[in-house]
Sequence to fold (341 residues):
Amino acid sequence: MNLLATDLPATDYRNNMATAPLTTPEVRVLSLTQADLDGLELLFDEQCEDWLEVLGWDYSGPSRLIRDVVRDRDLSGFVAVSGNTTIGFAFYVIESNRCSIGDIYVSKNWRGIGADKLLAEALLAKIDSIPRLKRVENQSVSIGTYEAYANFEAYGFKRFDRNYLMICASDWQNETSCVQTNPSTSIALRRWDDEDFSQAVKVIHSSYVGKLDSLINSQYCTEEGCADLLGILTEHIWCGNFLPHVSRLAVEEKTGRIVGVLIASRISPGVGHISQISVKPSHQGQGIGRQMIHSSLDDFFALDFKKVSLAVTHANSNALHLYQSCGFRTVHSFPVFHLEK
Fold:
């Protein structure tokens, strides 16, 4: 297999990245189809430990799904190997003309020697060879893959930093004494019902039209894409176990129309996550988002959750300020990337 690498100037990246063997004195990069499955299992276990330690997230469920596809030799990507030791992996998924980079992960003991850089180069070389692709996204929560970031930027990807924030039950008790909501008298909050799905999709889509996050994640650009995302949040384990009784809908009392959506899940024992907050543009600035957050947090902590997390694009200053004013604090930061080819 011919593998590509890169100690190349940024200006020559696309034209020359397919000429040199992808290797360092310590590291080789191979196709995932050539991976040692036992070595990969150890890496997947370590990644789950990282997610739990850094994010408070039990990633074992999604990890099992990925492992199943890897064992079937049906996942596209690469592994980094030193000697007989598997030290890193990266994979991607293609849907129509869109490519999603699922992850780049390197073992703690092997970080800082350029393994993530080599994995990124292999991914980019492969992606560049697929002519039908129009868009490439890397939305994954990365931990420790700092050397890979420069490759994406040199290749022409646009970078946006995201904050992973968390609030503890004890902090919430303190915050409620000094941060009050300003509830709208025309809006009522209630819990999620499956019949709300279609209306919720429309609210989510409308809240992202022309906004930064629709540039980062193209699924926000269409109602169909938003429906796919909401389906993942409410029907699958990728963002934890959906909690309909902790999720919130903001509803106009006179019309019954949904104007705000908050989706909540459990990501590990005692740790909750708010995976989606959207308010219709016509109702933004009225304190509805804060109402939903406060109401949901009240339920989380009444149910004896110890922590609740969420993620936000750093450049979305209004949302970041809202979450910080509710008591959330940043515990991890990571970049996401996208490229229009």
Residues 37-55 form the longest helix (19 residues). Confidence is low (pLDDT under 50) at residues 1-21. DSSP finds eleven helices and 13 strands in the chain.
